[in-house]
Specification:
mainly alpha, about 280 residues, 2 domains, single chain
């Protein structure tokens, strides 16, 4: 119990730090904004603590299948931290911020080719934004997308090479997939594979679909402004993290379906072998 509570507290604290990170790093943050961020960070930290401190799962998937959630958190934390340091460097430059800015410009310009997700994000901006804002958006989009690609690659290696999640022992579907009902009807393997394909497809299309929808809706509603530093950081982080998270979830569910199918095959083979043995 002590280990579970301490682990839940550490996770809640890290989530709170993640939410408050831009406000802690960026200079000249308004007091009203800081209060809202602090309240949001405390709420997110408490919900994370309550989820991981309980024996029964609630909504967090793959709670007992490390390092799935740790990898996603690390990718999001790295994205928010790097973008915050780059934005901070525009007001308070240092050697670190200048290096990160240079790397971000190189990556953003390299990925900004026709029909790429980064190009669509840049085209999403209104025509009256400054060149500095366009450069910031391009840099943030390029870095965010690169971090998400690295996270997906690392998880794919863990699944295909390191044998996640079977190397951690038995996989408990109820704890790790609390929102998935095995008794809802239909074959479990078929449903898992269908959900896996859906998550991968949607995750692949979202980086292209979101900017197109925002651009198309800009004539009906006020377009999103990315001139505010915190808005820029969280928008670009979410734009890259959510699709990557969905693709990783799809890969994980496909792996679980394969594990269940392999378990069935071994069980049927054992039953058949037992039936052929002489009495």
């Amino acid at each position: 119990m002590i280990a579970r509570t301490s682990g839940a507290f550490a996770r809640g604290f890290l989530v709170a730090v993640l939410i408050a990170l831009p406000a802690l790093v960026l200079p000249n943050v308004q007091a009203d904004s800081s209060q809202i961020v602090l309240l949001t960070a405390m709420l997110a930290g408490f919900l994370t603590f309550a989820e991981y401190n309980s024996k029964s799962p609630s909504i967090v998937e793959f709670r007992d299948a490390a390092p799935f959630n740790r990898l996603r958190f690390t990718a999001l934390f790295a994205t928010v931290l790097v973008l915050s340091l780059i934005i901070k460097g525009q007001a308070l430059p240092s050697g670190l911020t200048n290096a990160l800015t240079s790397i971000g410009l190189i990556i953003g310009n390299a990925i900004d080719f026709p029909f790429s997700p980064v190009r669509l994000v840049v085209l999403m901006l209104s025509n009256d934004v400054s060149e500095q804002t366009v450069s910031n958006v391009r840099t943030a989009a390029g870095l965010s997308y690169l971090v998400s690609l690295c996270a997906m690659t690392c998880f794919l290696v863990m699944v295909r090479v390191l044998g996640w999640p079977s190397r951690k022992g038995a996989f408990n579907v109820w704890i790790n997939l609390p929102m998935f009902d095995p008794t809802a009807g239909g074959d479990v393997v078929t449903r898992l594979r269908r959900d896996a394909r859906f998550n991968v497809a949607v995750g692949f299309l979202l980086p292209f679909f979101i900017p197109a929808v925002v651009k198309a809706a800009s004539d009906l509603i006020s377009p999103i402004t990315l001139e505010n530093p915190q808005t820029l950081i969280w928008t670009m982080s979410a734009w890259a993290f959510l699709p990557a998270s969905m693709i990783m979830r799809g890969i994980a569910m496909g792996k679980i379906a394969d594990m269940i199918q392999e378990k069935r095959r071994r069980t049927y083979a054992q039953e058949h072998a037992d039936g052929l043995q002489p009495a």
